[in-house]
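Continued from yesterday's entry.
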Amino acid sequence: MQTLFNNIKGDRLIWAIVTLLAIFSFLPVYSAASNLAYVGGIGSTFSFFIKHFMHLLLGFAIIYGVHLIPYRYFRGLSMVMVPIVLVLLIVTIFQGTTIEGSNASRWIQIPIVGMSFQTSTLASVVLMVYVARYLSKIKDKEISFQESILPLWVPVFLVLILILPANFSTAAILFVLITILVFIGGYPIKYLGIILSMGIITLALFVLFAKAFPESMPNRVDTWMSRIENFRNGEDTEADYQIEKAKIAIATGGVNGLGPGKSIQKNFLPQSSSDFIFAIIIEEYGLIGGLSLLLLYSWLLIRIVIVSQKADTIFGKLLVLGVGLPIVFQALINMAVAVELFPVTGQTLPLISSGGTSIWMTCLSIGIILSVSVKREEIKEQESVEENPLEILSEALE
């Protein structure tokens, strides 16, 4: 065990923030699991607690393993993984499991172990690494739009198109984040306008196709449009049931909250342990708990930016932003949905909500960020030794 802790490297504050979020997550997940255990009649609260513990244990194993890998290897791995995730997304569309009532195939079953895996989350991480690799390659080079279509935008749009039918929110968020990353990476703004136009046209064509052939993707476009329309008009429909219960939970929590495990709305919110867990947190821990959580994510964002700025290569800088910003972005969207500042998206709260795939992919991203910070530490140690000739002489004598 001591050897394990000695091998933990990288940004210590990121380690601390991630650990704090993971430890805190047990409280709301265990509390909210009663909805599934007793109301839904699925298992027991303790079984959900153990399941969440195992997900986080594997997640931290992923962080530990990935952060020991030199981050330069992720350049080549992204090239290999893009075709793999394209195949996985295609398999998911035709063979994936569906969400109740929405006919959206998002998960595939992992053979032997019998666990489900949401392929779009893996595709999101891989695509951000791939984009960071390409941007670092063309940095300070004159490049035409035609030259960037095949190596950059074709893989991006292929992945987005394959995610779009089952998960519009993930595809939309990923497109926005890629746009932000390429802007930061110095991609010409005049070309970004063309890409944004292509994205809008692609979405419009997809909606028209879905409307013309509704049997191909039943309920999906209607679900998206109704959510946006209801949010814009402020209408109270059955689809807004979860939002209404989340608002009640937040109003009930007040400043100090009802206390751990004392949430009432967890018994009425179908997604109380995942999509709407932030509402349960405020109900039980009040505004103080909600703001504390927001502070932790803000602190994580600051550390991500600092690690990016201190990275020794352009690829390292863009890589950290590419995999780090989505974590905080997703957290803010989840919170915004709970307080009705944003339409329902189905995005979980990173490292807090229950669910294996989301936790594992978040941990994969954290591991990559730490890998970049490890390299920076090694450079600093090397510079320190070079500046101290007495240490070099001492080591030589030994």
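--- second protein ---
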Amino acid sequence: MLLKDFDKMIRELLDIDRIDPLDVSLNGLQVSRSKDEIKKVAFAVDACMESFKRSADLNADLLFVHHGIFWGKPYRITGGLYNRIQFLIKKDIALYGVHLPLDMHPEIGNNAGIAHRLGLESIEPFGDYHGLKIGCKGALPSAKTIDDIIDSIPGRAAELLAKLNFGPKKIRTIGIVSGGAPEVVSQAIAESIDLYITGDASHTVYHEAMEGGINVLSAGHYSTETWGVKLLMKKIESETDLSTVFIDIPTGL
């Protein structure tokens, strides 16, 4: 597959051009390569030297990440950023990043992946961000305790950063916004949701959650954002002739 065709496919699949104006990430191709053709694509959550080195070891032509290296402003190409870009160019590995469009995709997004893993029904958009619903919400077919949900929650149990058990003992409705969105708990409270799941933990929402009578799980930024990357990888693998591989670099956060 040609690099330009990969770019076109991802842009259309994830509706990047529609969402781009509201996303501080530089969605799309962030670093190109000398050869137009790509045969093997590595997938990872983060654009870091570790994922770059492992992509090179795996002979990947392109690395797709959720967290890229450019975020809404000009950067001086010095220090660590220089080293990262220099490595990619030297190894001739292209870098492709997609942020919010991958979080919010209704089928292969991070939040959709978590919702389906938990068995939610009547799933609909949730979590307003500048007019976009970037998360989702739904209902369990039968009520569960927060500990029952923790037992089945995506990711590693060790990466559960916080459990705020201030809501109903029997949980039916769940709102999800992956990654760094603890403040969206206010929207979950306003919508009378029983449990809010996000990635990051925050001291500032503790009392708000307690006073709002809601359960909150901070399940780890990394763990909650592997889902879209893996789902996209599986889709690319099944619908194209590209070889794919997932690079797992958990941070514990």
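The first strand starts at residue 28 and ends at 31. The chain has a mean pLDDT of 95. Will compare against the first tomorrow.
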